[in-house]
């Protein structure tokens, strides 16, 4: 069962990748939301920062998943 071992190897990534992506967006939104009532550019800055963080997290997750898939294929 090579796919089962590969999915078991990918399992520690899974609780890391879906909730903290949304929590970083929510954290930056809460961090810059009181300032957005005074200055609106800070809200757009925080949105762009949170989007770039979530994009980098998803890119690193896809790279690690493809590496683990290639490792499991080469092992099997």
Automatic annotation (TrEMBL):
Entry keyword set: Membrane, Transmembrane, Transmembrane helix
Annotated protein name in UniProt: Uncharacterized protein
Ranges that cross the membrane: 20-38, 50-75
Lineage top rank: taxon: Bacteria
